[in-house]
Amino acid sequence: MVVDVLSFTTSVTVAVEAGTQVFPYPWRDETASAFAQNKVAALAVGRRAATSASPWSLSPAALRQAPFTPRLVLPSPNGSAIAAAAGDSMVVAGCLRNATAVGRWLARHGYGTAEHPVVVIAAGERWPDAGLRPALEDLLGAGAIIADLGSRGVGPLSPEASAAQACFAQAADVPPCSGGPVCEPRPATARSRRRSSGSSRLRRRRPRL
């Protein structure tokens, strides 16, 4: 599971809710345009590069306002790059917006146990100079999902997962959202499957708690 709250995985939930299939891709890769053409998909651009002709970007707010597109390549330097690197492994996109829905889906499908562990990746940020910065928002997003899994009897938790859960528990002003989509796994893609639960699913790497 990849958690990139600001803003790849949050953008994925917005796009999937609208019925868009999302393809992750590394940030500013010169082959992104060719990849989008191969997938017959629109290509999201940087926030400042968005235009009326190409209104899709990594901004969740901009995606809400943009016209519908059935398929979207959504590059980012963090969460999307991680998801793309997973190849054909199952990857789930989680964030604060869909934490409860993701926890419910994982528990329902038997993930988060010793037999079927889940790896929760709090993406953090890769800066232009290749430096890495841990991101508090991603730690809290991961903690929200882990807390929901814990409430469903999922475990045991690793020390790192327990620490993320504890951080989220102390952030009383950051409640998880029970809505949002549960993105069902597809190899490096997120496909919308509307369900009565109002959740969205994405396909990702097999996670571990």
What would you call the structural class?
Answer: alpha/beta
E-strand count? 10
Strand content: 5-15%
Biggest sheet, in brief? Answer: 3 strands, parallel
Low-confidence stretches: 184-208
The N- and C-terminal alpha carbons lie at a distance of 10 Å
What overall geometry do the principal axes of the alpha carbons give?
Answer: globular
Mean pLDDT: 85
Please estimate the helix content.
Answer: 25-40%
* Radius of gyration, whole Å: 16 Å
Strand arrangement in the largest pleated sheet: 5-1-6
Number of helices: 7
Q: What report would you give on this structure?
A:
This protein is of the alpha/beta class and 209 residues long. Helix content is 32%, strand content 14%. It is built from 7 helices and 10 strands. The protein has helices spanning 8-17, 32-38, 60-65, 79-85, 99-108, 136-151, 159-169; strands at residues 2-3, 21-26, 42-43, 71-76, 93-94, 121-122, 125-126, 132-133, 184-186, 189-191. Helix 3 links the parallel strand 3 and strand 4 (71-76). Helix 6 packs across helix 7.
Q: How are the elements arranged and paired?
A:
Blueprint: E1 2-3, H1 8-17, E2 21-26, H2 32-38, E3 42-43, H3 60-65, E4 71-76, H4 79-85, E5 93-94, H5 99-108, E6 121-122, E7 125-126, E8 132-133, H6 136-151, H7 159-169, E9 184-186, E10 189-191
Parallel strand pairs: 1-5, 1-6, 2-4, 3-4
Antiparallel strand pairs: 7-8, 9-10
